[in-house]
Amino acid sequence: MKKLSILFIILSLLTGCSEKGTYIENTTSHDERSVEKILMSNEHVKLAKVLLFEDELLAGIRVKTFSRFKKKTIASDIQKKLEKEYPDLKVMVSADSKTLLETEKLINKKNQKDYRKKIDKIKSIEKEQT
């Protein structure tokens, strides 16, 4: 019984450490529910950080392990869906881990004065990758 309880505790700790889900920071009047719906409906997406700021929609995604070889295709499919849903926004979706990390740092900063400069920096990072 003692071994079983220790095993259960270890499993619950390991399960709690995996990142899953979607985090959306919205500073616009656009509805973010459709962004979440599009991201969560894709079975390959493990984690997503999204920033809606002025006329920009910036999304960094992490794909599941066995989908990593198709991550550019997955990101472009999601980008097409988001562009269709939000035709008045400039949409950028990336499955690159550096873009995801920079987007997360920007969201955590909460200082909207720096958003424009950082968004341009993230876009330039993405252009370097391609």
Description:
By secondary structure, this protein is an alpha/beta fold. Helices cover 52% and strands 22% of the residues. The protein has helices at 2-17, 33-41, 71-85, 97-109, 115-129; strands at 21-26, 45-53, 56-63, 90-94. Strand 2 and strand 3 form a beta hairpin. Helix 2 runs antiparallel to helix 3 and helix 4 packs antiparallel against helix 5. It is globular, with a radius of gyration of 17 Å.
Compile the SSE list and pairings.
Layout: H1 2-17, E1 21-26, H2 33-41, E2 45-53, E3 56-63, H3 71-85, E4 90-94, H4 97-109, H5 115-129
Parallel strand pairs: 1-2, 3-4
Antiparallel strand pairs: 2-3
Question: What can be said about this structure in brief?
Answer:
The protein has about 130 residues and is of the alpha/beta class. It is built from five helices and four strands, in the order H-E-H-E-E-H-E-H-H.
Keywords:
5 helices, alpha/beta, 4 strands, 4-stranded mixed β-sheet, 130 residues
Low-confidence stretches: none
| Biggest pleated-sheet summary | 4 strands, mixed
Order of helices and strands: HEHEEHEHH
Compute the separation of the termini in Å: 55 Å
Which assembly state applies to the chains in this document? single chain
For the biggest β-sheet, the strand order reads 1-2-3-4
Calculate the mean pLDDT score and round it.
86
Report strand %: 15-25%
Shape from CA axes? globular
Q: Would you count the extended β strands for me? A: 4
What is Rg?
17 Å
Coarse structural class:
alpha/beta
Helix content: 40-55%
Question: How many helices does DSSP assign?
Answer: 5
